[in-house]
Design brief:
Elements lengths: L1 H25 L4 E2 L2 E2 L13 H4 L3 H15 L4 E3 L7 E3 L3 H9 L4 E2 L1 H12 L8 H14 L2 H29 L2 E3 H18 L8 H16 L5 H8 L1 H26 L25 H8 L3 H30 L3 H15 L4 E2 H4 L14 H13 L6 E5 L3 E2 L4 E3 L4 E4 L1 H4 L3 H4 L40 H18 E5 L20 E6 L4 E2 L1
Parallel strand pairs: 4-11
Antiparallel strand pairs: 1-2, 1-10, 3-4, 5-8, 6-13, 7-14, 8-11, 9-10, 12-13
């Protein structure tokens, strides 16, 4: 009997002993110029930084910022039980090297295993030829003609709907969630232009995707996610099923469009266009995917990835922008001065004539300060606060750090964008002027490795120009038209997600401005 009990005890304890052995002896010590890398704060025996990564995300942001504040650009080694050796990089030189060496650094198994359920073969998750095909399709869609339609036709249409909604809420004195307003604008815009479908921010798909994104983000913080989801993952699995079904419906709709024989029912002239000019779009994004990829399951993955990237991030940055603007009335006044100068002093009311000359607010160069406000909000609240790559081969970073194959590389735009070494002593302050040249008439540029909100190298965000055009026009019109008064004076934080949605939305009161004019 004792012998049997001994075997049972050994069988139960052996996996734990192997795990402890790996923790103590199994992870490589990474070196820079032959010297072992330092470890960040809160590195503990046995668990390494595992406890840190289990914290809620706002505390995790603060931890990354603390690491940067203590060690500057120094590369640090992080360790989490059961994961490959990893580093945190903060030096723009190292990040530039990662950006420019796409063949050396890829998403890797570390990322793909965690995000596969939600993103599949989509561009967010893809490498190699699968990534190239989707990127080329995106480039074809985001051409000059389509961007012109976006700024002069599509965005004014959906922005006007939001203006009408806010007029109603202002008259009633109702509480408004600005995050929901911006999300509705970007969702409708992407639905009509990219997928030829009517979409709304509060439909079942959006709710399901929001939850699935949050759980996927938690997988990167919890090394035992595959265990916890066995017991607590039922809602996640339902959400993913809803998302995938929606992707399949998007593809089916595109295929039906393609098969139409009647020349009056071309894909971009559907009932959702309403005869309001969107038929000028040179082919929808999903039709580009069908041309380039063919396989309908892969097209669905591609479409869902672009939908997330195109609508969520821009809406979130706009939310954080207005959060900052409500706390900086001096900046609001400067935006209004700039916009009034651009549209002229003898304009008419926006609510009745906004669509007469939308092009005057679709020119980013004509609104340098407004563009600078958008950049500064992006800096302080980057829509993708963490990024992860994996080395596909052994390599050495510019600072001398040697990385063996499969090493995990982490950088935190949230922390890098607050670096005093890069942004000066006022790095945590909201100062749009930092983005303007001495004349104040031109927005200066920063390298992708210093300001990594749009990624960099071959993977530079395709939607960068679209986001700038959309955000600048929305900020200009909304600020000129309304006063927004915050109702919660506490610090707003983000909720668990792969991007940066504001937890609880952005509740505020809206007041219609008498001086809101538009020519």
């Amino acid at each position: 009997m004792a012998l049997v009990d001994g075997h049972i005890l050994f069988a139960c304890s052996f996996p734990l002993l192997l795990f402890l052995f790996w923790v103590l002896f199994g992870q490589s010590k990474l070196r820079r110029n032959g010297v072992v890398l330092r470890k960040p704060p809160n590195t503990w025996p046995l668990v390494g930084n595992g406890i840190v990564f289990l914290r809620e995300r706002q505390k995790l942001f603060s931890w990354f910022a603390k690491c940067e504040r203590l060690y500057g650009y120094e590369t640090l080694q992080i360790s989490v039980p059961s994961l490959p050796p990893g580093i945190i990089i903060s030096d723009p030189r190292n990040l530039d090297y990662v950006f420019k060496n796409e063949g050396v650094f890829s998403k890797g198994d570390f990322v793909k295993k965690r995000s596969w359920d939600l993103f599949g073969h989509g561009i967010i998750n893809a490498d190699g030829e699968v990534w190239k095909v989707q990127r080329k399709a995106g480039l074809r869609f985001l051409n000059t003609t389509n961007l012109k339609v976006l700024t002069q036709t599509a965005l004014p249409q959906y922005l006007q709907q939001s203006i009408d909604f806010l007029d109603t809420q202002a008259a009633a004195g109702s509480l408004v969630d600005l995050q929901a307003v911006f999300h509705e604008i970007t969702t409708q815009l992407m639905g009509s232009m990219a997928y030829n479908m009517e979409m709304h921010a509060d439909d079942n798909f959006s709710v399901a995707f929001d939850h699935a994104s949050g759980v996927t983000a938690e997988r990167f913080q919890n090394p035992l996610w595959f265990v916890t989801e066995v017991f607590f993952g039922s809602r996640f699995r339902r959400s993913v099923s809803i998302v995938k079904s929606y992707g399949a419906a998007m593809v089916a709709n595109a295929v039906r469009d393609r098969r139409r024989i009647d020349s009056e029912a071309k894909p971009n002239e559907s009932e959702h266009d309403g005869g309001r000019g969107l038929k000028q779009v040179e082919g929808s994004l999903i039709q580009s995917f069908l041309d380039a990829i063919g396989d309908e399951s892969l097209v669905a993955d591609a479409a869902l990835n672009y939908l997330s990237a195109g609508r969520d991030t821009t809406a979130q940055v706009l939310t954080w922008t207005f959060y900052l603007l409500m706390r900086h009335p001096d900046v609001v006044a400067q935006i209004r001065t700039e916009v009034s100068r651009v549209i002229g002093a003898d304009g008419q009311n926006i609510g009745s004539s906004f669509q007469l000359r939308p092009a005057c607010l679709g020119d980013v160069a004509a609104l340098p300060f407004t563009h600078a406000v958008f950049n500064e909000a992006l800096r302080l609240y980057p829509p993708v606060p963490f990024e992860i790559k994996q080395s596909m081969e052994a390599t050495t970073l510019p600072d001398g750090t040697f990385l063996p194959r499969d090493s995990v590389v982490v950088w935190c735009p949230w922390a890098m964008n607050r670096s005093r070494l890069t942004w000066g002593v006022a790095s945590e302050d909201f100062q749009p002027q930092r983005w303007l040249d001495q004349s104040g008439s031109k927005v200066i540029t920063r390298s992708a490795s210093e300001f990594p909100v749009f990624n960099g190298g071959p993977r530079t965000c395709l939607g960068k120009r679209m986001a700038e055009l959309m955000a600048t026009q929305v900020i200009a019109v909304m600020v000129l038209k309304f006063d927004f008064i915050e109702t919660d004076h506490g610090e707003r934080v983000s909720k668990s997600s792969l991007t940066l949605p504001m937890k609880g939305g952005l509740p505020c009161r809206v007041k219609k401005r008498k001086g809101g004019q538009f020519l």
